[in-house]
Structure formats: C-alpha cells, structure tokens
C-alpha cells in the first residue's frame, strides 16, 4: 500500500522503515531531512496515487495544525489525513469536521512504542470513520505487533485513549521512582539494578517500564550520576486530569505524578520556604539558612 509520511523524526523515521520492511511504498517529506523523497507537500501529493493517504508524525499544536491546513488545500476529495502525533482529542474532533467539509477523510491514531517501535511494533489506538480506517488497516497492522492495533471509535477516540494511556504512564513511572528512592536511601546497601532485574520475572509489578529502568541503571549506574532530576511533560497528563475533572472522576495518582514533575523543575521551592517559615513561627522549629 502507498502512504505519504510527513515527519521523519525518531518516530516517523522508524515507522517509515517498518512499513517498508512490510512491503509498503512510503513517500516522505520532512523539512529537515536529506533522506526525504519530496521537497514540499505539493511534491509529496504528486508522488502519491489517489486516493492518497498522508500520515502526520510531527509535534502536536501549531506544527500539526499548520500542516493539516496546508493539506486541506492540497488534497483531493477522498484522500485521507492521518494524525499519528499526540494531539488533543478536541483538536482531532474539530479537524475531522473541517476535513469532512472538504470531502477529505481524517483519522486520528494514538501511537505508543517510542524508539523501540521499529523492532517491537507500535500499539495503535485508531479513531475515525469506518471506510478510511478499514482501507488503511494494512498500514496499521504492519506497524503494530500482533494484537496491538484496534479501531477504538470515531475520530477523537484514538487520541483520547492515547491521552489516558499517557496519564496512566505518569502514575506508573512515579510509583517506580518513589519506590526506588526509598530503597536508595535505606540503611541497606541495595543493588538497585539487581532488584529491578529480578522484579522482571514473576513479580506482580513487572512491566516493560521496569525492564527499561533496569537497562538505565545498568548503563548509568545505581546513582544515575549523569542524569539531572528534571522531568518535563508533553501535555497528555494535564489533559487527562482536565477530562477527569470534567467527568467528576478522581485521579489522585496521576495528579500527584504530574505535580511531582512540576516539583522536579524547581531549583528552590518558594512553597517549601513558606512551610519552613510557618513551622518556625508557630512551633519554633529550626530553619536552614541559605
């Protein structure tokens, strides 16, 4: 099957390779790549046979919105635009309506797998109308491992599901982080790499994240001396919490995990200063001078 891949970064580049390994004909465009087959979106369009399929694998927000708008002008009726980035599902619902008004199909695919997807496959949570999704299933099944793809609902459902997936990921990562810190600061001289290693087998907390943690400890050492404790977030955790609030659903673990990321970015917490000052005022508790 033929496909136009837009974005050849860590995800898009590997997805292109995996699709080609499965016999698909992938034309490519990326402003910053020398390996692209097209030098413009117009040239990419002309390299594809109708009905065309364009797959966006670029950052969410303005880059995706700008490219989507350009494709609406360039694509023909019956073509399909697939957004495989981490877009907000509300944006996907809006883009679906805008595409429909132009006779163009829009499919939103939540993609999980990271840099390991080339070898292991990508979990795909696809949202969109039945006809374009069914037509593109050979692409989805090539990208995904066995049983790793599902058509989860209409447009927006794919990115909604991926959003919740990433919110859960926040909580899982934070739980591992807190547990390993407790062990690192204990009175026992524990080999964290060894413990992460044995927990991969038979333990109820075994997971792929734990395997990755064990690999990181092996590469970096138990103290992770070359890694700064600064944790960014790309938005999905925030969106998950916003939707939980809208639905009156309590998500304390995911919320605490997001706030822990905020705390990791502070060189000095003013809130902690306030707490220390108050403890000193009402209880005479000692404070540490700067």
Short description:
This protein has 290 residues and is of the alpha/beta class.
Describe the 3D structure.
The protein is of the alpha/beta class and 290 residues long. The protein contains 13 helices and seven strands. A seven-stranded mixed sheet has the order 2-1-3-4-5-6-7, with helices on both faces. Helix 9 runs antiparallel to helix 10 (208-220). The longest helix has 28 residues, at 157-184.
Kindly report the spatial arrangement of strands forming the biggest sheet.
Answer: 2-1-3-4-5-6-7
Measured distance between first and last alpha carbons: 64 Å
- Structural class category: alpha/beta
The string of secondary-structure elements, in order, is EHEHEHEHEHEHHEHHHHHH
The unreliable regions are none
Q: Portion of residues in helices?
A: 40-55%
Radius of gyration: 23 Å
Mean of the pLDDT scores?
94
Count of helical segments? Answer: 13
**Principal-axis shape:** elongated
Number of strands: 7
What does the main sheet amount to? 7 strands, mixed
Which range does the strand content fall in? Answer: 5-15%
Secondary structure blueprint with pairings:
Layout: E1 2-6, H1 10-21, E2 25-29, H2 41-47, E3 53-56, H3 62-74, E4 80-83, H4 89-101, E5 105-112, H5 117-120, E6 123-127, H6 130-135, H7 137-143, E7 149-153, H8 157-184, H9 192-198, H10 208-220, H11 236-246, H12 252-264, H13 270-283
Parallel strand pairs: 1-2, 1-3, 3-4, 4-5, 6-7
Antiparallel strand pairs: 5-6
Helix pairs in contact: 8-11, 8-12, 9-10
